[in-house]
Amino acid sequence: MGTKLSVSLNDVLEPETAPRIDRPPTFDPLYGFPNGRKPREMKVSMKDMDEWNLKPGQRDYCAHLLIPLMRCQKKYAPFAGHMCDADRHNWDRCEYDDYIMRIKEYERERRLLQRMKRKADKQT
């Protein structure tokens, strides 16, 4: 419920209401949040990510949990499977929460674009 990414045939048939994922959001990120939003921050520096040779896809908001997982796997290799379960769980949970956040942002953008189109159609 609410976790499906709405990339569908409607996005192809109505491109003006489909968010562009290769560009920044069209609308103000604080629009609709009267008390503001907590800004997302990277908790690990670029230097640390370079030190651990993180790939571009791993340099996200969960990198601060991936580094301890990699450290644990390196320490207990080749038997790191059960020794690093807690670190793996924390990183997986962060990745899941980040995925859900991105889906919600996509949906918010899509709905605001649809609302803007409805308002423009009503005025003409």
TrEMBL record:
<keyword id="KW-0813">Transport</keyword>
<keyword id="KW-0472">Membrane</keyword>
<comment type="function">
    <text>Accessory subunit of the mitochondrial membrane respiratory chain NADH dehydrogenase (Complex I), that is believed not to be involved in catalysis. Complex I functions in the transfer of electrons from NADH to the respiratory chain. The immediate electron acceptor for the enzyme is believed to be ubiquinone.</text>
</comment>
<protein>
    <recommendedName>
        <fullName>NADH dehydrogenase [ubiquinone] 1 beta subcomplex subunit 7</fullName>
    </recommendedName>
</protein>
<keyword id="KW-0679">Respiratory chain</keyword>
<keyword id="KW-1015">Disulfide bond</keyword>
<keyword id="KW-0175">Coiled coil</keyword>
<dbReference type="Pfam" id="PF05676">
    <property type="entry name" value="NDUF_B7"/>
</dbReference>
<comment type="similarity">
    <text>Belongs to the complex I NDUFB7 subunit family.</text>
</comment>
<dbReference type="GO" id="GO:0005743">
    <property type="term" value="C:mitochondrial inner membrane"/>
</dbReference>
<keyword id="KW-0999">Mitochondrion inner membrane</keyword>
<dbReference type="GO" id="GO:0005758">
    <property type="term" value="C:mitochondrial intermembrane space"/>
</dbReference>
<dbReference type="InterPro" id="IPR008698">
    <property type="entry name" value="NDUB7"/>
</dbReference>
<keyword id="KW-0249">Electron transport</keyword>
<feature type="coiled-coil region">
    <location>
        <begin position="96"/>
        <end position="123"/>
    </location>
</feature>
<keyword id="KW-0496">Mitochondrion</keyword>
